[in-house]
Amino acid sequence: MNELVEIEKRGVIAHLTLNSPGTLNALSDAMLAALAARFAALAGDAGVKVVVLKGAGKAFCAGHDLREMQAGRAAPDKGRAYFADLFARCAAVMQMIPALPQPVIAEVHGIATAAGCQLVASCDLAVAAEGTRFGVNGVNIGLFCSTPMVALSRVVPRKVAFEMLTTGEFIDAARAREIGLVNRTVPHEGLDAATSALAETIAAKLGAAVRVGKRAFYDQIGMETAAAYAHTGAVMVENMLFRDTAEGVQAFLEKRKPDWA
After folding, report:
1. pLDDT of residue 85
2. Cα→Cα distances 197→13, 86, 212, 258, 261, Å
3. Which of 107, 109, 183, 200 could form a disulfide with 195 if both were Cys (CB 3.0 to 4.6 A apart)?
């Protein structure tokens, strides 16, 4: 039986695949649970240095499962409790990504819409195939993408995010790169190779340094400038005291490769 979120480990890189191509990898209740389980396991996996997240079939992710959402309306409260729980669970999964010690790279193709676009925005990095379409298009069916807005508005300019949210219009991969939603765009046939190359570049760095750096990156974003400098200065002190960092600096000075444990 195929798993909803498949995992393939290629050395120190874990490739997660949303595996519900028939629903365009919609974030159903089961899909959210499967993602949460995978992320929880990876959080404690010291053997994984980078995570790649992709979708099976024709699309990366089409957002929430609208059929499940409509079915929730059958409850006596017309779905209020179910909807509140659904959006809370989805928000929790999205927040697991920046909390993971490993950098997470979205490998995006086809479409990434609504909560699927939120998923891309929540990842640390993203590589998109040319021709990929992105949108927070819930407004087209009368549902403003308020929760996807949280991740989107934190990675793209405010006016661009608001235009996407209020018009429901899609943008292509080139525009997504221009506004900072994705880092790189590549031909579709080179997507896996390009994403893997980026993952391998990061995986070659000192894992302990990347882990503390990622945590500090997200911690300092919400701070005032002076507090951010104080916090990151303390982080750098601890980083400098790592045995492998001392070795890395010495190796650079001696023009040799570091002997990292």
Report:
1. 97
2. 11, 35, 22, 21, 23
3. 107
